[in-house]
Amino acid sequence: MISNKQTTIIEGGKQMNSINTNRQTAALKASKTKITPSNFIRWTGLSAIVAGIIFAGIQPFHPADVVESVNTTQFAIILALKTLMCYLMLLGIAGIYARQMSKAGWLGLVGFLMLGICWATQLAYVFAEAFIFPLFTTLAPKYVDGLLGVSSGRASEVDLGANPALYGLLVGGLYMLGGLVFGIATFRANILPRWTAVLLAGTAALTPLAALFPHNIQRFAAVPMGLSMAALGYALWTERRSRTVENVPGSTQLSQTAAE
Fold first, then answer.
1. Residue-averaged pLDDT of the chain
2. What pTM was estimated for this model as a whole?
């Protein structure tokens, strides 16, 4: 038979266990809302999702890269979205790299830097297209038209200086090479799902084939690239991490006493 003393100890142990459970639940809730490096990295996954969706989604609606498009409503909306996309893409890539930095090695660093330079340069061009080009469509229409044609490799009627070469190297070249290297590094790190890395690397490797088609068709080569970034962001955003909660001092000892 269980004595009154033993019953009291058992009931006390149950009460303390209940208190400990409540404290652990409160600690878990606090850890979800507290801004920590791991939580911040997880939130950058959302940036990659939005950037990838914008990148893929705007392609069917992108206006022609000619000076006549610059002052249209469609151009203003698409370029505003592209500006936001570039900011979010840089943040998303940084978060994806930070999550796997310890295992991605030097290859991951190289891929991250190449993609970072690519999208930072793209941001500068997109910002100019959105907010500067409209001011010069009447003053220097041929120059604006020539800059708009840089992305498609269209010949310009005026001298654009080093712009075509810089864009081709820092945006076009690093877009493909950086995507390939970063995809391989992500695959080797084996932290995020490998199929997302294969999609990124494969899309980057096949991008040069888009040159075989007219520019209005080439745009659709960006769709799988956008989807690959969104997939990586989703994997980062939904990734489950184990959280440890500090045990309340004396709880283990009390539980053991109650069991006796």
1. 84
2. 0.78
